[in-house]
Design brief:
Two copies of one chain form a homodimer. Chain A has helices spanning 16-31, 46-57, 63-87, 119-126, 152-163, 197-205, 213-221, 275-285, 314-327, 354-365, 389-400, and strands at residues 3-8, 35-40, 92-95, 102-104, 113-116, 130-134, 137-140, 145-147, 168-173, 194-196, 226-230, 239-242, 254-258, 261-270, 290-295, 302-310, 332-336, 339-345, 372-376, 379-385. Chain A is α/β, with parallel strands linked by helices. Chain A is 35% helix and 26% strand. The relative contact order of chain A is 0.10. Chain A has a domain at 3-174: Carbamate kinase (3-Layer(aba) Sandwich), CATH 3.40.1160.10. Chain A contains eleven helices and 20 strands. In chain A, helix 1 packs across helix 3 (63-87) and helix 6 packs antiparallel against helix 7.
Chain lengths: 405, 405
């Protein structure tokens, strides 16, 4: 009998009526002839509420205790969902993460799964029970409760699916699936039926909030096929995510905008080996993630270097840049938050050299100036002025998605 | 170094300010040179709120899932209290019940502690940490989370104190300690400085809500001395509970009233061996607890039997009594909720034969008629009309406590 793993997020479990609805979906799946393992998040805003409570007591939020605290949220969901399933005449077995055999390292609040002992899950499935597992949590080698970081329930579901060789992992959510662009911003955005792991990963890095990257990386590594589906629209088929072959044509699968970017420019530093390294080593040591980098053409052995960081890290990055820049004798250091990043993503883009040109032309057509460009095998990103973002997003979506049916 | 176990109830932890206050008390105790283990209940009304949530989903409240659900309440308290302790510069280690080595039987929602493996607690104490344990919960031989029933955190504290040979167990609460009578009803009521396990047990059975009886029985069995103290009045010394020798004089330590009693009378049944047994066997089979029984003097081989039960069980007891009574040919069966029970409790009462007489005289002096009487080694209870209850309570308190300084 095939096994299906279903994951329900907090917005799918935010009140008792929704929990009952979810229980019915689970029981229907079992009645179709599957063994079912369910992974749940904490109800609605529970996690945020617990964090706020903890902040009132100890603003430094000690991580070990925070994990113990937050892990209770998913346990409540497990218990209530089991109760709801049992009112429908099926037997359910609920497990906190540690009882489900999810072993992690000792890095509290961002633990990584080291292995899963699925023995107890399999044992209960064999008794014809529906197994409900608390997502987002595990147990460390020191026997302390750990959590996997925001969005960790997706990872729990994917990892369990890999460990028990599930036929499919279903990630239920409050949206219809993955779209060609944010449907709140581009009304022509379309649901994507199928997408590859790599494309989904790139989407996360370009500002499209879909799923925790670690969960997608895990799915890719262990080849776990999964589908992102709407909880409350039973007809919604969602987006299938799996390994995909490079296709001919239809290169671009999605377009995204990231408005949480900022740019730092260091003007007129010596253009000699090791200078760039000095800047980015300093930033790396402080765990600041640099996204795009450009260095202009050298003029008389001097160059300007620009790079982008997430806006949350701007202040720290700017201070560091000033320190290093002054040491290097830079003429000036500037920051700019008035930018955003427009990206297109698609498998096999590199096999179609015209894609970049089409993107730049599309932007030019609506008068948008490109400040920086970066490309990867399946992505092209352009930094533009923030005020041009909306216009750029829509035009690029029209060029690659709407005109490309 | 001596160990002190402290237990804080839900009302002592109902908001973040109270949790910080409790943390300070704990740290002060450690600074006095003790090793400290703390047992906590769920914050304020958390347990009731979780039960209400569960009822909306599955009114039958499946017990295994309910235990998983309720156990989260104490875990939240553990995590927050540890955080609060750490802001004061002490190290704290928080344990859910199962990590603390509390092994129970498999009777969910009312599990009994079978043994405690205090190894992990001792290990953390030896590292100079304050150990905080979730009360009310343990783990069954089937590796499921169990709970110990209402008031179970007291039991957790006493049992841990026994297992780790603590010098003292402190039960912190929202009252000043144990009183000679309910201070809300008898304004002359006084705090009792010392009381024996047996007296405290009898008080619970006579309607005075002090502590879960199982916790007191456990303390008596393992000779764990404990003190019931106010959390928020640091000067309050509370009531010490321990094994006590029979003292001369000052026989009565407390007076109580129980208004949740009801009386059933079966009129005119054959006065022959086995008849009483038939009635009370039938009630016992249905788990109905009978408190007092009187059988009047036989008239021509017929007798009347009256007994009292808790008002919650009256309907069930009355139906059963009618069935058995009719079978025995009883003339009539009546119920009466217009009664209450006045009790006096004191070690060594039986060595002072005048005590019962003094109680009856005190009641007679204020015109209160006695309907039923029962006595034990350390207790005398009288059933009187409900309307006489207040007057009877005050007069008996005056006779034995106020006049007996």
């Amino acid at each position: 009998m095939d096994i299906i793993v279903q994951k329900y997020g907090g917005s799918s479990l935010s009140d008792t009526e929704k929990i009952k609805f979810v229980a019915r979906r689970i029981v229907e799946t079992k009645k179709k002839g599957y063994k079912v393992v369910v992974v749940v998040s904490a109800m609605g805003k529970t996690t945020d509420n617990l964090i706020n409570l903890a902040k009132k007591i100890n603003p430094s939020l000690p991580e070990r205790e925070l994990d113990l605290l937050l892990s209770t949220g998913e346990m409540v969901s497990v218990a209530l969902l089991c109760m709801a399933i049992e009112t429908l005449g099926e037997e359910a077995e609920g497990f906190p993460g540690y009882f489900a055999g999810i072993k992690t390292d000792n890095f509290h609040t961002k633990a990584r799964i080291q292995r899963i002992n699925p023995g107890k899950i399999m044992q209960e499935l064999d008794k014809d029970k529906i197994v409900v597992v608390a997502g987002f949590q595990g147990i460390s080698s020191e026997n302390a409760i750990t959590t996997l970081g925001r969005g960790g329930s997706d990872l729990t579901a994917i990892a369990i699916a890999a460990a028990i060789k599930a036929k499919l992992c279903e990630i239920y959510t409050d949206v219809e699936g993955v779209f060609t662009a944010d449907p709140n911003r581009v009304k022509e955005a379309r649901l994507i039926k199928e997408i590859s792991y790599d494309e989904l990963l790139e989407m996360a890095s370009t500002g499209a909030k879909v799923m925790q990257s670690r969960a997608v990386e895990f799915a890719k590594k262990y080849k776990v096929p999964f589908v992102v589906k709407p909880t409350f629209n039973k007809k919604g088929e969602g987006t299938m995510v799996k390994e995909m072959e490079v296709k001919e044509g239809a290169d671009v699968s999605s377009v995204s905008i990231d408005e949480n970017q900022a740019k730092i420019t260091i003007f007129r530093i010596p253009d000699k080996p090791g200078v760039a390294a000095e800047i980015f080593t300093a930033l790396g040591k402080e765990n600041i993630n640099v996204d795009m980098i450009i260095q202009n053409v050298s003029k008389q052995h001097y160059a300007d270097v620009s790079f982008t960081v997430n806006i949350n890290e701007l202040d720290k990055a700017f201070e560091l840049s000033k320190k290093v820049g002054e040491k290097l004798g830079a003429e000036n250091i500037e920051k700019d938050t008035d930018i955003c990043k427009i990206s297109i993503i698609g498998v096999g883009m590199m096999n179609h050299p015209g894609v970049a040109g089409r993107m730049f032309s599309a932007l030019a057509k609506v008068g948008v100036n490109i400040e920086m460009i970066s490309t990867s095998e399946i992505k092209i990103s352009c930094i533009v002025k923030k005020e041009d973002g909306e216009k750029a997003l829509k035009q690029v979506h029209k060029e690659f998605i709407e005109n490309n049916i």
